[in-house]
Amino acid sequence: QSVLTQPPSVSGAPGQRVTISCTGNSSNIGADYDVHWYQSLPGTAPKLLIYGNNNRPSGIPDRFSGSKSGPSVSLTITGLQAEDEADYYCQSFDSRLSGWVLGGGTKLTVL
Amino acid sequence: EVQLVESGGDLVQPGRSLRLSCVASGFTFDDYAMHWVRQGPGKGLEWVSGIGWNSGTINYADSVKGRFTISRDNAKNSLYLQMNSLRPEDTALYFCAKDMGLIGFGGSDYWGQGTLVTVSS
Known about the structure:
A: 111 residues, mainly beta, three-stranded antiparallel sheet, 9 strands, 0% helix, 44% strand, B: 121 residues, four-stranded antiparallel sheet, globular
């Protein structure tokens, strides 16, 4: 059972927009620790998509955006492309557990 | 170019030990915290342990506390994970990850390709 809660799967057609939610509690996201998002393909190194809730590293298209509201955050992908099909994880720090916490991952299917 | 290269993964029997290594290059190693994250077969990412820039802050997931020990050698740009009393549920691809900060509260902007640990009799 992951500390951060994500939907197991989302899907969308090419060109559409999808949103992936990530909910925590008062010892992590609710305590104002930053949330980061990663894109991962099984067996490969995760790739940082969003850091500090809503910042994109260089090279990440502006189709990817992050937002935060209280103990919940969201990753939004607009203009879906086939290459976006992957697993997406949110991550934060937890003061009670004294370490990173991760969501269970959301599998994005591009229809 | 930032590179993180893990090694040390192997097939081991339950109860045995293994030491993973991660050699870093392309950045000032002792300016950043480092982490180990694993992914079991068909499972999601699981944070294992993190260590601050000067080893002053060290944290472990409950699932490995008391069995695993993280350490770093800043002179060698290297991160280590000593894994003792290994269990079948420790079977996973183990990633080395660079934190974006000193202490370990941040996310990771660079990951290695992983080293595979299989625990089975």
